[in-house]
Amino acid sequence: MSTEKTTGEPVETHQHGGVHHTHAHGHSAHAHDYVVPELPEAVDIFDTILRDGSQQEGLSLTVDDKLRVAEQLDHLGVTYIEGGWPGANPKDIEFFARAKKELTLDTATLVAFGSTRRAGVKSEKDEVLANLIAAGAPVACIVAKSWDRHVAEALRTSLDEAVAMVADSVRYLRQHDLRVFLDAEHFFDGYRNNPEFALSVLAAAEEAGAEALVLCDTNGGSLPDDVGGAVAAVRSRTSAQLGIHCHNDAGCAVANSLVAVQAGATQVQGCINGYGERAGNTDLSAAIPNLSLKLNIRTIPVDRLERLTPVAHHIAELVNIAPNPQQPYVGNSVFAHKGGLHASAVARSADLYEHVQPNKVGNGTRVVVSEMAGRSTLAMKAAELGLELDGEVIGRVLDELKHLEHEGYHFEVADGSLELLLRRASGWVSDFFTVESFRVITDHGARRDAEADADVVGATTTPSPAVLFGMTTEATVKVHVGAERVVATAEGNGPVNALDGALRGAIGPKFPALEHIHLTDYRVRVLDTGRGTGAITRVLVDSTDGEHTWTTIGVSENIIEASWQALYDSIVFGLLHAE
Ligand SMILES: [Zn+2]
Questions:
Q1: Highest mean pLDDT range out of 137-151, 349-363, 420-434?
Q2: For the residues of 63-115, what is the DSSP string, one character each?
Q3: DSSP per position, 225-278
Q4: Model confidence at 278, in pLDDT bands (50, 70, 90)?
Q5: With 0-12 CB in 10 A as exposed, 13-18 as middle and 19+ as buried, what is 58?
Q6: Sheet containing 471-481: which strands, arranged edge to edge?
Q7: What predicted TM-score, i.e. pTM, was given to this entire model?
Q8: Measured between alpha carbons, how far is 198 from 163 in angstroms, rounded to an integer?
Q9: Is 90 exceeded by the pLDDT of residue 227?
Q10: Which residues make Cβ contacts (< 8 Å) with residue 118, sequence separation at least 6?
Q11: Within a 13 Å sphere around the CA of 263, how many CA atoms are in the beta-carbon half?
Q12: Which of 26, 164, 224, 277 allows an S-S link to 38, with CB 3.0 to 4.6 Å?
């Protein structure tokens, strides 16, 4: 790190794996004399999916998953990846050990998370600090209480000891050649309640050699004005790098992070896709483009911004949580336009209807087609797919769409099936495989081996009815791939699962791309309930190849037939785009 003076403002240059980030802190050189700051030229992006993000309900990552997520974050070009809390769980110790051997990071630096030493314990005797050193990551991010009430009620120690814990821990880690960031937990609540104590925690960390002081809105309830004011006040008292770590409980995490940067923070912590406990952490998928495209502040390398959407979707895939279609910048629906008039105006001048050019973040404008759509919308959709359909064909497709939507199809939510329909209208024929027949048998058998199964599962687990009654579903699919006739059978936990397994068994060997394509969601809706079991069933299947997702549809009086249609379209669509 070198320090040089330009226009009276300290400028620090950090080197991260060959990429230079320059931070102009943008505060007055005169201490205690805050002036409206200039925006920094660049901020460091710090992703904490692997630590804080993993606190999300239902999100659980194996060490392999964590390594894959880290690779994606590095591919995107974040500055720091917080890998976990070594010592808090064995998985994180293993992660750091394997990361050392298996991860080659290009832009990112790995960070290990921990806490300060415990109250009344010497640093050299403290296990948490020992684990941080043993993790072997070049940076340690340690959390400290900065709200006096937490010191009294959670730590049950004195404020002086709380400050000493910070100073001792930072100094100890610095002596072991670690770069140190301090996460000031509950900083904004603490600053409101007892600013003197909150600031003394930061001062102790800085004096002991902490490189970044990270102000955390741990309860996530602060509003932008509070955050901006507090960051500005801290900015005027220190020349250390300031970071911002927000939770989204008041729906303000991204806004609070932007305000903090405008007040002088140059490290933004959060998670791609905004994962985290309760309402989540700052969504970096929104914070990054807001900073880069709207405030003109460098975040990830400029030429990698277009990786944002694919990486966000890939990570959603790895953590096994369906992407939110309405997620700003990267959601599937956020540049989708519906309705004839509106959609044709978008085609003429997109900037009238879109806040940024979607391709800048790797997303795309999408025309949504429904029975409400007119010829022009359909023609645009065809053009979007690179299909040339003349007026007569468009007219026929429109008639077919109306007919199918009347039967219960809903193409607005089934982009995959719509694309196949348009391609077929243009004369395209799917020649991957042809289906001779399929069959599904669900066997609701006797109470076989129920007790034995229960033993295996364990006494505390209630076996599912499928286990208790030995219910199995088996599907057989007969297809022709080229000149070859293939028959395959698979078992599954339900008809779709079994059919999917059988179809993959039959054609998988011929189409290795199938390995990367799988179903992520399956939704059934019964239409026209007045007809009881004779009602129409609509099935939607979501699929992904790891980067793109698509939805296909099937409609029938028979739920298995409807499922098959959706499944068939899903596989054909996947194979078509894998080519
Ligand atoms: Zn947090």
A1: 137-151
A2: HHHHHHHHHHHHHHT-SEEEEE-BTTBHHHHHHHHHHHHH---SS-EEEEEEE
A3: HHHHHHHHHHHTT--SEEEEEEB-TTS-HHHHHHHHHHTT--EEEEBGGG--ST
A4: very high
A5: exposed
A6: 434-444, 471-481, 484-492
A7: 0.74
A8: 9
A9: yes
A10: 126, 128, 165
A11: 26
A12: 26
Average pLDDT over residues 235-259: 97
**Measured in angstroms, how far is the CA atom of residue 234 from the centroid of ligand 1?**
20
CA of 276 to the centre of ligand 1 (A): 8
Residue 268 has φ and ψ, to the nearest 5°, of -115, 120
- DSSP for 102-156? H---SS-EEEEEEEPPPTT--GGG-HHHHHHHHH--SEEEEEEE-SHHHIIIII-
Please tell me the distance between residue 246's alpha carbon and the centre of ligand 1 in angstroms. Answer: 7
Lowest model confidence (mean pLDDT) among 15-19, 31-35, 239-243, 386-390 = 15-19
Token look-up 């002991």 returns 208
CA of residue 269 to ligand 1 center, whole Å: 9
Longest distance between any two alpha carbons in the chain, whole Å: 83
Query: Is residue 279 a contact partner of residue 247, using CB atoms and an 8 Å limit?
Result: yes
State what percent of residues in the chain have pLDDT above 70: 86
> Rounded to the nearest whole angstrom, what is the distance from the C-alpha of residue 218 to the centroid of ligand 1?
5
Strands 336-338 and 139-145: unpaired
Q: Are 292 and 331 in contact (CB under 8 A)?
A: no
Residues in CB range of 78: below 8 A, 6 or more apart: 45, 46, 47, 107, 108, 284, 300
| 502: enclosing H helix or E strand | helix 495-507
Return the number of other C-beta atoms located less than 10 Å from residue 273's C-beta: 26
Cα 91 to ligand 1 centroid, rounded to whole Å = 20
Question: What separation in angstroms does the CA of 552 have from each of 108, 416, 523, 535?
Answer: 38, 5, 11, 20
Residue whose C-alpha is closest to residue 576's, from 364, 440, 365, 420: 420
The label of the residue with tokens 């394997």 reads: 98
In our burial notation (b when 16+ CB lie closer than 10 A, e otherwise), range 110-149 reads bbbbbbbbbeeeebeebebbbbbbebebebbbbbbbbbbe
Q: H or E stretch including 10?
A: strand 9-16
Token pair recorded at residue 460: 């505390």
d(CA 319, CA 59): 6
DSSP notation for 168-229: HHHHHHHHTT-EEEEEEETHHHHHHH-HHHHHHHHHHHHHTT-SEEEEEETT----HHHHHH
Residue 342's pLDDT is what? 67
User: What's the gap in Å between 14 CA and the centre of ligand 1?
Assistant: 24
Report the pLDDT value the prediction gives residue 125, as an integer from 0 to 100.
97
Confidence at 369, pLDDT banded by 50, 70, 90: confident
Calpha distance 277→286 (Å, rounded): 18
> Is residue 320 within 8 Å of 391, Cβ to Cβ?
no
Burial class (CB in 10 A: 0-12, 13-18, 19+), 530: exposed
Cβ distance 329 to 366 under 8 Å?
A: no
* Ligand 1 centroid to residue 29 C-alpha, Å: 31
Q: Can you tell me the mean pLDDT for 144-164?
A: 92
Whether the CB-CB separation of 446 and 470 falls below 8 Å is answered with yes
Question: In this predicted model, which residue has the larger pLDDT, 535 or 233?
Answer: 233
> Which pLDDT value is given to residue 530?
58
CA 540 – ligand 1 centroid, Å: 36
